[in-house]
């Protein structure tokens, strides 16, 4: 019974030793955090040609609807549908028999009135006829001349000619059809395809922004190349010929809030046909101090805003919110948030948080921008 106090004392000593060891472990300092290794790209300002890609459709350079100018029966069709025709080439022949008769009658009437006028002219000198009779004969002769000219025109109109050069469409009439002057239905239609128009629509908001930047000096005019337009076809291929800007619409479409911009393209092979959907690339201006950031260094936060991490003067990762306008190949055109000389982190982003101390070295995951994104050839989105 006397051994119990000794046993309790021994248990208390063991407990005290355990607590002492635990206290020693808590007082030990945590291991120092390792400095993260990151790869960076030093940003530089460089000239960048801003281009705008706009959707549009092709339109024939000239369109002529062929209609008869006299009444009659179609005797012949003198062209192949879908072929090329020249201005002045005969397309149809309308039965000319009635108009030939009218022409001969007008010739006879003119000859008769001219003969009478000549006789009266000699007689009026001798006062054998009155001056009034001579004037009436002369007026009748002039009317006969006019009637003959009208008959000649009507006879000429029996030959329906092509008003312009181009590709003729299908014929809506055949031999034996009755046609009339002033009818609403065109006999056929001719489209001039070389050159050809491309009409594209540009949002008014984009147009105003570009004008403000040009006026403020942020952008410079693109020079002679500003009038050049490149074309991408529906299958994604590039059209081999460059076009030039012709004009911009003077009014805004109230339904779409956009203006129409027209360009003209050479089309010698007739690869472009009216109504085709295309994308035109227009030169908007040149930014001489553009910042192009590699896409590997640009991410987005929870709100969808573009962000980037840069190494600041204290060798710490600093978060920047960006305003990224468009892509240019494998880079972003950044208008706000980055400056020349900034060290943009492109490698090791998954191991770094804002405020962490980092050790920077040149990035190995960024290669030179491909030719498609070079300033003079970049396309916008």
Describe the structure.
The chain is of the alpha+beta class and 381 residues long. It folds into three domains: 200 residues, Elongation Factor Tu (Ef-tu), domain 3, CATH 2.40.30; 53 residues, RNA polymerase II/Efflux pump adaptor protein, barrel-sandwich hybrid domain (OB fold (Dihydrolipoamide Acetyltransferase, E2P)); 62 residues, Helix Hairpins, CATH 1.10.287.470. The strands form three sheets. Strands 1, 14, 15, 16, 19 and 20 form a six-stranded mixed sheet that branches. Strands 2-9-12-11-10-13 form a six-stranded antiparallel β-barrel.
Question: Notable features of this structure?
Answer:
six-stranded mixed sheet; rod-shaped; alpha+beta; Elongation Factor Tu (Ef-tu), domain 3; 381 residues; single chain; OB fold (Dihydrolipoamide Acetyltransferase, E2P); 4 helices; disordered C terminus; Helix Hairpins
CATH architecture of the largest domain: Beta Barrel
What is the structural class? Answer: alpha+beta
Integer count of domains: 3
Radius of gyration, taken over Cα atoms and rounded to an integer in Å: 43 Å
**CATH class (first level) name of the largest domain:** Mainly Beta
Instruction: Classify the beta-strand content into a percent band.
Output: 35-45%
- Classify the fold: give the CATH topology of the largest domain: Elongation Factor Tu (Ef-tu), domain 3
List how many beta strands DSSP finds: 20
Low-confidence parts lasting 5 or more residues at pLDDT below 50?
Answer: 13-17, 370-381
Largest beta-sheet characterization: 6 strands, mixed
- What's the CATH H-level superfamily name of the largest domain? Efflux pump adaptor protein, beta barrel domain
* Average pLDDT taken over every residue: 83
What is the H-and-E element order? HEEEEEHHEEEEHEEEEEEEEEEE
Cα-to-Cα separation, first versus last residue: 94 Å
Number of helices: 4
